[in-house]
Structures are given as C-alpha cells and as structure tokens.
C-alpha cells in the first residue's frame, strides 16, 4: 500500500510544481502582452522565480487579526488547497491510479465544495472588505455552478458515461466540434468559476482592495494563491477531457491531453491580458438570463440528437 | 483501510504540512495594535464587520438551491439513455420544461434583476 | 554576493527600434455568414462521424454484455464455492478453539442451534460473523471488499 501512497504523493507534488511554473508563465505572458519583459532576473532567465516567491512568502510574518476567528481563519486556506489537490486524484492519464466509475460526479462535488473555502475565509477574517468580497465571489460561483452542471450534463449525455478514464481512452469524437456553442459557454463558465479576469469581481481592486483574502498574509495567503492557480489548471484539464476527444497515438496518447491542457491554461492568461472587468449586474444577468436558458435548451437538444443519430 | 481514501488522506495532510513549514519559517516581529486590527482603508474599525446582511444575495442562494436540486434529479440521464431512450427523452423534456417555467416565473417576478 | 558582477540593464546596441504608433487595421477574413456555414459544416461532419463511433461502441457494449452473461454462471459457482469454503474454515476453527470446553457442539450455543432453525432454514450470516476468525483489520477490509460488489 506504501507504493500507492507514494504515487499519489508524486502526483500531488508535481501538480504543485506545475502550479508554481504556471504562475511564472502568467507573469511572463502578461509582461509580453503589455510590451515589457516579465521576471528575468532570478538566476537562469528568471526560471526559478516561483521558488523565490515561495521562499519570500513563507518567510514573511503570519498575522492573525485580533478580531478574526482563529481556527476557521487557519483552516480555510488549507481546505482550499486540499480540495484543489483532490481534483488531481481524478487525473485520467493512460496509466491511472484509480478507475472511478463516476469521476465526473466527483468533479462536480469537489467543485461545489470549493465555495466553502471562500466562505469561511471571508467570514472568519471579520473585516468588511473581506466579507463583501467573499459574498460577491460566492454569489458569482453559485450562479455559474448551475449552468456549469447543466452544460457538463449535456456533454455527458453525448459521451454516455461518467467515466473519465473511458473518455480519455476511447472517445474519438470531440464535443467542441459536435456542439461548438456548448463548448464556448463552458469555457466562459470555467472563467467565472475560478474567479478569473473578466469575472474577477471578488477582488475588484478599486472597490474591495483584494476581496476575501485581504487579511491573509504569508503562509495562509500562499495557500489561497496555490489553490486558485491549481484550480485553473484543473479546469483546463477537465475542459480538454470533456470537450476534446482523445487522439489515439499509442504510448503517446497522453501528450495531446497535456498540450490541450496547457493551451487552455494559456488561454486563461490571454483572457486576463485582454479583457476588462465586467460589471456585477451584467455578470449576474449573463449567468441567470442567458446561460441558464441556453444550457437548459442545449440539454434537450443533445438528448434528442443522441436519440435521432 | 481502503485504497480509495488515500487521495483524500494525502490531500488533507499536505496543506497543513505546507502551512507548518510556513509557520516555522515565518518572521515574528513584536505585534502591534495597528497590525492586528482588521484592514479598513485608514479608518479604525469601530463596529462588527458581520452586521450587514444582504437579502438579495440570500435570495440568490435560495434560487441556486432550487435549481441545483433539480439538476441532481437530472443526473442519471446519461446512464439511462442506453437502456430506454424514448422514455428518458420524455422525462428529460418534461423536467426541463418545468425548470424553464420556473425560470420564466422568476424572471417575470423580477428576482433575477440585479439592479432595479 | 561577492562573486557576481553588477550589470546595469541597458538598451540593446544601436538603441530600440522606432515605436509603432500608426493604427493597424486587421485584414478582413471570411464574412460572418461564411464562418457560420463553416462551423455548421464541421459540426455536421462531426455528427456523422460520431454516429459511426457510437454504433461501434454499442456493438462493443453488446459484445461485452454477452461475455458477462456467459461468464456469470461460472462466477456464481466460484462465489458459492468460496462461501462454502469460508464456512468450512469457520467450522474447523471453532472445533479447534472449543475442543477444551466440555459439551460444546459446533454451530450451537450449548445445544441450541443458532445457524439452523426450523422456520428459516439457513439464515444469512452477518459479515462480521462470517469473517469472525480473521484479524480485526483484515475483517473490515474483507467486509469492504464484499460490499463493493
């Protein structure tokens, strides 16, 4: 049983390393989008920059505000990172550790649990900005979760299974080609789910300073940050699993999956570098008045198309 | 006990370890009153931050609950499509029409309008 | 650091290139209708291909189902055999454990039968009782394994 634990540990550690370099990629790409160089000073072309960041964050003072509730305050960042790591036990590469029958359901469960980490963080820090940011980000995540579940369900209707391993090992046709609008809504929804840029209302700098993580510093902030970026990688992974079929390449079958994941992770950064922030009422209207009716009708469409074809 | 809990166990063990490392390495200056008070742009925080309660956000959460429960009811569709396609299509259509009617009712009532 | 030499960031030799300030109007590609048509064409082709894939998958699933049906009697027999073997192991173990107790009859509690009665001839054994003679941790592992199926 020890070897299994070690395998999972390696899986999680590599995810954390990937997340670290993803932050570097984001800084670099944002730099080039704004016609400047990103971090390029730390040793070799700035490559170990994330490790320098981690060391800096870990050696700073961990401050616990006097009015905060201490235990939830410590607990919530850890919970965020734990949930973000738990996604990766589902990682459906060609030699997986587990063969979960209902991996897509587990994905939905964990992604809805992510709300609680934000909720506890915002409530426990007992600061007005933190509370407002947390409430905003929860309302946003919750509203988009409804349409996310419906979109995922219509994709699963076409895939006819909840099994992620089956999807990556035997699904040749890709849903992004079968129903392109579905894929577009899904991508926008993942942007909103991870609180990324056109929808990063939880940390609107002009009104809320930094949202639900104002009070967090050093180690706790590092944990929140890691959870956020791991979630982005997770979302891009599941986008490529659900919406892009596999390409049979023998032992290299995993490589297209990884490349697609990297492309979507890059797309998240690209969107951040390009689009301005949305207004909050428009965000809510987009979720409830366009995405929800559209995803409901998409579900009927995919069910009937499956039966006709 | 069983191997399917191993990822959960490891995922709950790693973040506290990371936090413990941060806690051990962290700098510990003398705490000051200003540093320990909650952040509030230049003000002294006078009253409790948990007082404001927005009914709008609460209503939104209730709406979410209603829709999410109905999504849970729709979950087994992909599995039942192989077994009996026609009845699944019928059930899906009926339940989605009910959902849609609920949505239209909410829309009509104005509980989806954010700024009024 | 002593070993490192300070190097000031300077512009490249010859200076930077001229700043591009003129407006760049991108080349017009396909019109909206054309893009729409291409998208519809691609997705209808994809649906036709999906049709073939699904038929293949359905045949495969049918094949697997037939194989499972063919295997089922064998698996059932093996399951019964394992069950009876475990019962025999339990009986032997009890015989060995209780050989010093005078008047102990295996399968009964001081003469009263508890695994075999008149109304319901062979009641189902609880899993905790079925694996009673194994180690505590192993017992719960085995119960878990049984519940998965």
Descriptive overview:
- The complex is a heterotrimer of chains A (about 300), B (about 120) and C (about 150).
- Chain A has about 300 residues and is an all-alpha fold.
- Chain A has one domain (about 1-30, about 50-309).
- Chain A has helices at about 1-35, 50-60, 70-85, 105-125, 130-160, 165-170, 175-180, 180-195, 205-210, 220-245, 255-275, 280-309.
- The longest helix of chain A is centred in the N-terminal third of the chain and has 32 residues, at about 1-35.
- The radius of gyration of chain A is 20 Å and the shape is globular.
- The mean pLDDT of chain A is about 85.
- With about 120 residues, chain B is mainly α.
- Chain B has a domain at about 55-110.
- Helices cover about 65% and strands about 0% of the residues of chain B.
- Chain B has helices spanning about 5-25, 35, 55-75, 75-80, 85-110.
- Chain C is mainly α.
- Chain C has one domain (about 35-145).
- Chain C has a two-stranded antiparallel ribbon.
- In chain C, strand 1 and strand 2 (about 110-115) form a beta hairpin.
- Chains in contact: A-B, A-C, B-C.
- Chains A and B meet through helix 1, helix 3, helix 4, helix 5 and helix 10 of A and helix 1, helix 3, helix 4 and helix 5 of B.
- Chain A: Belongs to the complex I subunit 1 family.
- Chain A: InterPro entries: NADH_UbQ_OxRdtase_su1/FPO, NADH_UbQ_OxRdtase_su1_CS.
- Chain A: Keywords: Membrane, Mitochondrion, NAD, Transmembrane, Transmembrane helix, Ubiquinone.
- Chain A: It is found in: Membrane; Mitochondrion inner membrane.
- Chain A: It comes from Ridgeia piscesae.
Keywords:
heterotrimer, B: 116 residues, 5 helices, 0% strand, C: 149 residues, mainly alpha, two-stranded antiparallel ribbon, 3 helices, elongated, mitochondrion (chain C), GRIM-19 (chain C)
